[in-house]
Amino acid sequence: MEYRFTSQNYEQEVAKSDIPVMIDFYADWCGPCRAMGPVVTRLAEKYAGRVKVGKVNSDEQRELSQAFRVMSIPYFVFMKGGKVVDTHVGGASQAVLEQKLDALLG
Q: Which active-site residues does the annotation give?
């Protein structure tokens, strides 16, 4: 399941999550973000129940984008225990993102 994170549900869904979280900051107009969409969906399915994989529309959720200092998209944030443990700016292969997710779980 792929989540949609917003300022309204961030505290409950991300900060207080009992499992690691991957956030994909994106925008509808962003070509590389659209290219990453299917990869993010596959990761959400593969890691379901072990990692909460979700998206933040950086145009609609400016407060979250500012809080994470998002300067370029796509921007991936990997969190554990409510803390940022890793990030990745730009497109990436599914294998690269899987390595980061596996590290979260390890």
A: 30, 33
| Span 76-104, pLDDT tens digits | 999 999 999 999 999 999 999 999 999 99
CATH of the domain at 99: 3.40.30.10
Can you give the pTM of this predicted structure?
0.96
Tokens of 102: 């596996």
Q: How far apart are CA 86 and CA 51, in angstroms?
A: 14
Q: How many domains does the chain have?
A: 1
What one-letter code names the amino acid at 90? G
Q: Which domain holds residue 50?
A: 2-105
Residues 6+ apart with CB under 8 A from 39: 92, 93, 94, 97
